[in-house]
Amino acid sequence: MNLHLGVGDARRDGYHDLLTVFQAVQRRERVTLKVERGGSGGVVTSMSTSFAVAEPEENINTAANLAWRAVEAVVEDAGVDVPAVRIHVDKRVFVAGGMAGGSADAAAALVAAAEFVAHYGGVEVDFHALHRLAAGLGADVPFCLMGGTAQGTGRGDELVAMISRGTFHWVFVNPRVGLPTGRAFTLLDDLRHNDPALVARLDTTALSRALLSGDPEQVAGALHNDLQAPAVRMRPQLLAVLEEGSRVGLAAIVSGSGPTVAVLCRDGEHAQQAEAQLRALFPDYEAFRTTGPAEGARLD
Fold first, then answer.
1. φ, ψ for residue 30 (rounded to 5)?
2. How far is CA 284 from CA 2, 6, 233, 275, 287, in A?
3. Residue 263 near residue 274 (C-beta atoms within 8 A)
4. Full-model pTM
C-alpha cells in the first residue's frame, strides 16, 4: 500500500513522476509452479486462481496476467530449456483494489521462477536481474519484490529503503466498485486545472519522521494520497468509508488509485474493534485487518 502518494507531471512515456512511500503488509498470497509433463506451446501452459476474496467477473488466468508474464520473462532472460509449468495463485488481496496484489503475485512468480530455472536449467538468477525484470513488468513490482517500507521515485520503481520502527495495524475495506487507474490519473490532471489546492505533494519529510518514531498517531497525521480526490470524485461512496474509517480508526486513506480504503489503528485490539465496526456499517463491502511492514516476495 502507499502511505504517501505524490503525483507529479505526466511524462512522455505516459506515466507520471511519483514520490511515494510504500509499506508491504502481512497479507500473503502464494504462487505455485508445477511442472507440466508433456506441455508444449510455451513455458507456461495454464494458470488457475483460488479466491479468499471476491472473484472478479473477468477471467484473470490468461497470458496477460503479471504472474504468467513474470515466469516467462525469467526463463527467457536465463536462456535455458526447462520443462513447461502451470501456475496456481492463492489470492487473498482484493482484485483491482489498489493494493498491488497483481504486482505482488508477479514478484512471487519471479522468485519462484528463479528457483525453477536454477533447479532445471542450472542458471542462477540474482536479485539485480530479478529487479530489472520486475521493473519491466510494472511500476509496483520492484517494491513487492523488496518489501518492508521504501520510498519510490520515477514511476515508483526507483527505490530506497526507509527506516520504520514498530508494527502498524491496518484495516482494509473494499467497496467492490471498479476504479480504473488510468482514469484516476487523467482526472487528477483535469482537476488540477481548476483547483489550485490540488498541487503535487512531493515532500515525505513529515512521514519519514513519523515512521522513525514508530508512533501510529504521528504516522496517521502524515498519510497522504494525491489520487484520493479523483478516486472520491469517480466513486462518491468512498467518502463515507473514509469518514467512518477516520472516526473508528486514527486515519483513513485511499490505497493507491483505489477503491480500497486503508484505516490505520493504534494497536491490534483497536484494529479488531475498527474492523468489526466497519463491517457492521458496510455489510456489503469486504474487509480484513493486518499489520505492516512485511517482507517482500520469498520462497516458502
1. -115, 130
2. 25, 31, 21, 14, 10
3. yes
4. 0.94
